[in-house]
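Objective 1.3, modelling of assemblies. Example input:
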Amino acid sequence: MTGVGTISVLGAGLVMTAAVWAAGCLAGALNMRQKELASWVLAVRLLGREIAWGAEPLPRLCARIGGQVGGVAGEFLAEAAENGQNKVLMLDMLQKKAEGWHLLAGDEMVLAELLAGLGQTDLAGQKKLLGQMEARLGALQEESVGRYARLARLIKGLGWCGGLLMVTLVI
Amino acid sequence: MQEDTGLWGLLVADLQRALGAGPDELTGVQEIRLRLGQKVRVRRADGERTLLLEWDEALMQAQLMRFTENSLYAYEEQMRQGFVTLPGGHRVGLCGRAWYSAGQMAGLREISSMNVRVARAVAGVARAFWPMVVGGGRVRRCLIAAGPGVGKTTLLRDLARGLAEGTAGIRPQNVGIADERQEIAAAYMGRAMLPVGARCDVISGCGKAEALVMLLRCMAPDVLVTDEIGTAADACALRDALNCGVAVLASAHAADYAELLGRPALAELLLAGYFERVILVERRGGALLPRAVYDENGERML
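Predicted structure (tokens):
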């Protein structure tokens, strides 16, 4: 192989590696988003069920559910319970914590809406709010699963193409 | 007497600032009145003081959320009855616009006033009443009557404590308390916040009639204690209890015996001689004393 040929192979290889790496990063983020949304959906579902049973105040309820759920939602709820479930503090906390999460602006908006309404109404209002939020977060989670699956297919395709390209160039 | 800091911690910062430096400011406070558009008023035994702070909607909302642990739904049932019980047994009376659902009062919205009543157990207030309540080695069936704010609940609590602790001059009794409005024991998270004695079983937040039946069936009490009876259902449940050989200590709003007879459900019990003693209570110089005592035939004894 001539010097020019070697450089071409290396260049193509680098480009392909960079493309796969970027797609991998994106897939990682999407995977995390999917997990984070799943954790929130589970937390909201449990809140919805438990809130109807015994009407336990939020700080105690969230501390309990936070311990059961795990993930980002579990951590958030446990911490929010320590702050007494204050609405303003919770919204501040969401803003700070969301920087380290992989959620999109739309996901955060739904969570902000949820936190702003949590505990602010009677039992019927809370059940309605949590039901709506569960449905909306569930839809977002489904969408994230679909997006992740599409990206996974893309990466797989890129991998195949890259491999074929390398083989062709080497030959 | 130093107040616990629990109530202080539940007050919004503006109100804390208006009250003063710290939890000690609540010493001797009986009530804090918070009315929309009005200055905050604090009542102590020696009179009322008006603070500079004017109470507005934002403060009302913030205070309400503090009192309900940011969980309005959890206090829905209490709010429907017009109060919220706080840790420490303190009690917040509420006023506002009532709203109805399916023909029944579903709660209060647009809260316009709050009355924070500072709970304080006064041990020994029942001392003057033991000769009327206990006789022949047993507890008599007694109805305690007085106007609002005289201290019927405080008296009932101290009577229950005395009977349950065995300081009433007879063997300690198992006391069942039907505490519908959570005023006697002020239960919070299942634990009585005010001293009701070691042998007390408390059902709180439940209708008196249901609670009395449950206590009778499940807890085998020697004495049943309940507050503010007046409805036909209460009277019916009490009649069951009285027919089971259980002693009953109950209270009712009434300034005199004639007012008691003016209430049909109570009149029925009184005329049938269910209560061995009807004790009218008055407050004199800070102490609770019997003003008049009637026997089961309605004859005045004191």
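The interface with chain B takes residues 51, 55-59, 61, 84-87, 118-123, 125-126 of chain A (CB under 8 Å).
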